[in-house]
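Running log. JK asked me to keep both predictions on one page so they can be read side by side. First protein, sequence followed by its tokens:
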Amino acid sequence: MRIANELAKRGLFVSPSGVRSIWLRHDLQTFGKRLKALEAKLAQEPGHVLTESQVVAIEKAKQEKEAHGEIETAHPGYLGAQDTYYVGTIKSIGRIYQLCGQPTSFPVKLAQWMRRVGSDSDGSSCIRSIGTTAWFH
């Protein structure tokens, strides 16, 4: 509705559903896709000047990416993700934990199942691996 109103101010009369159908025709139905198209256009035409609202939208999108955990790295493989899960207890083995790791840029996941076997004299836990798995997704 807002885009149709802005176009009407410029003398172009397009209904809100007409704006949506144009966006669908060009695969621009979401705000994120429109921003990506704008950035691609800027890459092709370096002398193109942005309006203040376009600059604000691009900066806001970059901040939201960072706020939601999307991080850009210099090279693939510089960043990894890790998590630990408590799986359960087996009488003959004891407590079992699953350690998962994944390089964020590769479609492979690693999992290792561990069990606690005691503690050192300083109180830190000793753990022993009881299995490792890798799979592609």
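And the second, directly underneath as requested:
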Amino acid sequence: MVKEDQPKVAGPSPVVLGTNGPRAQKIQQVEKLAEGFKESQAIIFSDYSGLSVLEMTDLRKRLSQLAATGGPSPRGEAGRHGRGAELKVVKNTLIKLAAQKSKLSLPDLTGPTAVLLSKKADPIESIKTLVSAFKEKGTVKFGVFEGDLLATEGVLELAHLPARAVLEGRLVTVLVSPITKFALILKGTQRSLVTVLTEVGRVRGGGFSG
């Protein structure tokens, strides 16, 4: 039983195209957006209305230059072969159509919406770049991260995580450190054993060669 004060999560109501449906350009836009939904590790929906045209252009450029490792693409080029992330300004009705086409359940959207699609780029780095550019001028509405629906707070928490490359580096350090210490211990034990055997050999009048 659902409590009255508990927010209800429901999928969007179906959008039916009438006789005056979207033009071919809009249909193509919906298809590309649906494809982007399926390919993206992170999808962030936000209100960009506080940003100027120049700021939006700069943000799009920075996102497009994110490579799969989370760093800029070679020679600062916009992501080739699907690298980088995209920021698209899309009408809410078209977003709803694309979500239905890609079987993605989203809350209802209101107001101007920009969609961040992080395909092969580091999704954490993409989110960090978006949130950093927004500051007080933009607002994150919600997001989808690796298939999970996140509220605004969840997206902002991801923005404060280290980039994936940094996390992987830390993981390697954690995995390697015990092995390194164990190797040093074995090396020290070997030296101690050689020293003892050498001393025993000297006392007995013989010798020991390790």
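Observation for JK regarding the second prediction: The radius of gyration is 27 Å.
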